Amino acid sequence: xxxxWRSIPISQRLLELLERENSQSExxxxxxxxxxxxxxxxxxxxxxxMRLEIQGKIQVTRFRREEKLVTLKNAKPNKRT
Length: 81
Hints:
Blueprint: H1 10-20, E1 23-25, H2 26-36, H3 42-54, E2 58-64, E3 67-72
Antiparallel strand pairs: 1-3, 2-3
């Protein structure tokens, strides 16, 4: 269980990371969040993923044998100029 309060909830930060790139591997997302939230464990991370998936904000699919791909649903295409 997380012990420290953060100004940005983990779920919101995860969605911000996915807005940059519409999909990322589960391990890459976990590593990025782990840098900012050192106290987060995989169980907490999986709970956040499950909540966001139930809310219909993300989709988690099997990417490779031991890897999952997390995709932002209803993502707007990135405009690069």
